[in-house]
Amino acid sequence: MTQTSTARLMDGTGPARRIVERSAARAAWISRETGTPPCLATVLVGDDPASVTYVRMKRARCEKAGIASRHVGLPATTTTAELVDAVTALSRDPGVHGILLQHPAGPHIDERAAFEAIAPHKDVDGLTLHSFAAKSFGLPGFASCTPGGIMRLLAEYDVELTGRHAVVVGRSAILGRPVGMMLLAGDATVTYCHSRTADLASIVRQADILVAAVGRPRFIRGEDVKPGAVVIDAGYNPGNVGDVDFETARTRASLITPVPGGVGPMTIAVLLEQTVDAAARQLGLDPGAGVG
Amino acid sequence: MTQTSTARLMDGTGPARRIVERSAARAAWISRETGTPPCLATVLVGDDPASVTYVRMKRARCEKAGIASRHVGLPATTTTAELVDAVTALSRDPGVHGILLQHPAGPHIDERAAFEAIAPHKDVDGLTLHSFAAKSFGLPGFASCTPGGIMRLLAEYDVELTGRHAVVVGRSAILGRPVGMMLLAGDATVTYCHSRTADLASIVRQADILVAAVGRPRFIRGEDVKPGAVVIDAGYNPGNVGDVDFETARTRASLITPVPGGVGPMTIAVLLEQTVDAAARQLGLDPGAGVG
Asked: Which fold has domain B144-264?
């Protein structure tokens, strides 16, 4: 007799679709009310094929939701000063409501300087220092999109955060650090683990909520998942493999995100939603209104 | 036969004195080089006796170190808009190099708006969103003074951070949250506990480095301190009592801060040092130079 149970899947595609549909309805309302559709500016330095694909996909998703996009493609030889100037111009342009600077901008670029040229009220990708700190303190502001998507997914599945031990594996500026701060603002007890953590397994085993954000295939062993844990796999490695060993983890978790189809779809949905919010505010509409 | 040992005390007074002496020497150098001493502006709303005393003490410590201070006292009836205007004026005033807005500004004031009026390059008390995020990512910037003092104290006592489990009890915007982020930037594994944490003792017992920042007398029991742990008590409660039960904790810890004389003196030392750094930069001097 085995005790194997199977976790419920935390599907991200359904919730993401609902967010996108609502954003599209609000984008249409903004266009009707003001004569101007929300507009996302995308900035890409160089022609890295993956980055070109990402930007194209994001723009296509915008168009489909009734969000205009404006692309600024810069040569790989662009300097930090030139990139800062280009982003600053978009920050000042009243026709642009959100700015997405595609990472990586290139090894010779001071990316932090470039991101900081994004005006906080247009930082719909949530990557400025201001946005990170605002969300860390539970203040209004734009979330880094993947962490924001994770928080929405947890809410969607009624996962209680208060007092529960959330373990975040990974501490990147766009994912691990902000999601930990958002979980803390949501009253979870939060532990950050990373490449220098001494005994990762012993900490992972304590996680009521586990967020894997390392970018290493099957890095988290299923046997280390606490029985009944909620497992959020934000990894997306070649071959559609996450950071968690899904097949063993699902026998212990209560809820687990699939890869793909879990966190991924939420990320782009949050980007669209935040772009629409930014546009509503900048165009003088009540961001809470518009969908009946 | 007992196994009781006694922790070494982490004295903050000696390291703080050295930081203040170095800051005073650099302030004198700045005055000689530019004809202008570093200047800290202090802003106080109302006449809360504790706040009046704090501000007076900070100004006295500045004067003693050769740092000029300028005080802006505002009536308790001051509105958020008036306070923001006053702080904005100081942010623009080239004669002011650092700005300290004394907390609390009053229940009717939007403190976040007021703090955000401090220009990042004058935020020597380290309380803006920009400063929090910069230190969270290990970037140059001003530390919130108590967390900055704690990090200096750990360095002073050669406490290894890499891979060690640091547990921060408390998550305030000026202490718990930033010190955890700084410990993470220093490669520690970091856990945040707080009032909603389910089983505090079991987490405290895992701490190689324990930072108590709750403001409740003897809240951390000595018996929960891991043998050999480094204990940083940032609490300062009536009767010179910290957040940790010192007498029992010292029998288990390897290093422990006394209260008073541990973290406290480091806080003001960091404020003075950051004011001098800010002045050096704004006056066009190399902030790394000036003390031979």
From this structure: Rossmann fold (3.40.50)
Same fold, B33-134 and B144-264: yes
Identify all chain A residues contacting B189, using CB atoms and an 8 Å cutoff: 191-194, 196-198, 203
**Average pLDDT score over residue span A150-175:** 98
Query: B172 at the A interface (CB within 8 A)?
Result: no
Query: How much is the pLDDT for A290?
Result: 76
- Residue A2 — very low, low, confident or very high, per pLDDT cuts 50/70/90? very low
CATH architecture of the domain covering A145-264? 3-Layer(aba) Sandwich (3.40)
| Domain map (residue ranges) of chain A | 35-119, 145-264
Residue B183, chain A, CB below 8 Å: the answer is no
Nearest-Cα distance to chain A for B144, in Å, is: 13
Tell me which of A102, A122, A123, A224 is the catalytic residue.
Answer: A102
Q: Compute the average pLDDT of residues A148-173.
A: 98
ipTM: 0.96
The yes-or-no verdict on residue A10 having pLDDT over 50 is yes
Q: How confident is the model at residue A254 (pLDDT cuts 50, 70, 90)?
A: very high
CB-CB neighbors (< 8 A) of B178 in chain A = none
Three-class DSSP labels, chain B: CCCCCCCEECCCHHHHHHHHHHHHHHHHHHHHHHCCCCEEEEEEECCCHHHHHHHHHHHHHHHHCCCEEEEEEECCCCCHHHHHHHHHHHHHCCCCCEEEECCCCCCCCCHHHHHHCCCHHHCCCCCCHHHHHHHHCCCCCCCCHHHHHHHHHHHHCCCCCCCCEEEEECCCCCCHHHHHHHHHHCCCEEEEECCCCCCHHHHHCCCCEEEECCCCCCCECHHHCCCCCEEEECCCECCCECCECHHHHCCCCCEECCCCCCHHHHHHHHHHHHHHHHHHHHCCCCCCCCCC
- A65 interfacial to chain B (CB closer than 8 Å): no
